[in-house]
Amino acid sequence: MQADTFDKHLNPWSFWPATIALGLFILAGVFDQEQLGAFLNGLLYSLANNLGWYINLLSLSMIFLVLVFIIYRYGDIKIGGADVKPQYSTFSWCCMTIAGSLGTGILFWAMGEPIFHFATPPVAAGVTPFSRQAAIYAISQAMWDWSFIQYAMYGICAVGFAIVTYNLKKSLSFGSLLEVIFGRPMPKLTILVHALIIFCLCGAVSNSMGVGVMQVGAGIELLLGIPQSKLVWLIISVCICSIFTISCVCGMARGLQRLATLKIFIFMSILVFVILLGDTQFMSKLGTEATGYMIDHWGMHTTIMNSLVPEDHWFADWIIQYWCSFFVYAPVIGMFFSRMAKGHTVRKFLMVSVVVPSVFCMFWIGIFGSMTIKLQTSGILDIWSAVHTYGMQTTIFQILSSLPFGTIFMAAFIVSTCISFCCLADPMAAVLATLSVRNLQIDDEAPKLIKIIMGLLITTVAYVLVASGGVNSVKGMFVLIGVPVSFVVIACIYASFKLCEKCIREKNYGCLEEAKPAETREETRETPVE
């Protein structure tokens, strides 16, 4: 469905409240960037101290909830019905799952995170900074932060959307899940949820763009000698905005697919490059020990707080903002994952959706994190000092610059960062626009003007975040928007359980047969039975 007008299709109760709230945020950043940064930093620590227990426990529960779906009989449910065949091969499915859920975060946080944990581990870890134990802990914590918790959230939300779409033949929307929960349509609550998601998802995508802008700025500084500044960040933001907004407005499905393929190719090339030319023996040893440590301490990795050491803010700076950011993305990425669920059992769908991208992220962090520790401990490169001098976004470029042909791969990494964000922002801007319009499904085309507005909002918020405080402002914004969206995630989880309980008791897993065309029904009625 293609909408070409603005007022005719706009849902004002979803669009305007979220847009006005974002506008006020932008104005606050324009007129007083330092105060905004201080406010977000204070908000980060306040929410973490008061609600951190709730965020950590809810995140930890995701692992157990996924196991319930996999082990219990819910796993037998065939999405789309018993006779439906999968739309994609297993290989294509795995590739799309990895590519569709990786944004700029793993390029930014996952690259710089291990050196931070190595130098400044939390008190609860009980390790000495820059020690062997700190190195194992650092890689292990980063592996866990970027693997199973987030994909468990995405997978559980996806189960509900997949069943309500393919088995019950309802629209792929929050309204369908709310109807399942309450037993009747909830139009006002649906509008409220849409407005909340518009505000929060726009903020989340802006966060991803913010870290991408900082990473590109760091690469340009090391390659061309142009210092990072607000002007440089502004130019980078405008360029990236132009690319993903034009792609979104034009609906270039093939172009987006090619961008995603190029992104994966560059990622794998850089990964192979580091493995072959780096210290493979060291990376394999440290990565293996970190994996074992993660298996032994995954509960602690999820729930670390600052009990009896109130001056330690490590948990707020890291896991709290991670879990909150995953809450924000969970419903929408769940929608994306659900489109690949048709023809699979719930058990197989969750195994692929959770395990495959988690293993990829663990391998990626194991390689790059171990390489970072090697360069730091061997004295080849003082990455910890470089982080303080140039910012955490420089870590990956410091690693690449220490290897042969590093300059070429630094340039390739800058390109991959831009492409990675565009692959995320294109569909997210389309989703934001669709949620702002009445009577559209999640995969319909929204008005072009609304897509442009959403692209501009994402870019403006991203620049304000970076200019008002960089990394810390990004973290504070994630916690601010993550807490309310966690209740939407809880609603999606409840709907998933309720739908599975319904389908497991019904014939053909509750899959409703599609109504036949009028002509076919008439012919069937008039044809005599012999």
Automatic annotation (TrEMBL):
Major site of localization recorded for this protein = membrane
Annotated compartments: Cell membrane
Please give the Pfam families that the UniProt record associates with this protein.
BCCT
Q: Does the keyword Transmembrane apply?
A: yes
Entry membrane topology: Multi-pass membrane protein
The reply to whether Glycoprotein figures as a keyword in the UniProt entry is no
**What UniProt keywords are attached to this protein's entry?**
Cell membrane, Membrane, Transmembrane, Transmembrane helix, Transport
Listed transmembrane segments: 12-31, 51-72, 93-112, 148-168, 189-211, 231-253, 260-278, 318-337, 349-369, 408-437, 449-471, 477-497
**Top-level division of the source organism's lineage:** Bacteria
Record's family? Belongs to the BCCT transporter (TC 2.A.15) family.
Mind telling me what this protein is named?
Answer: BCCT family transporter
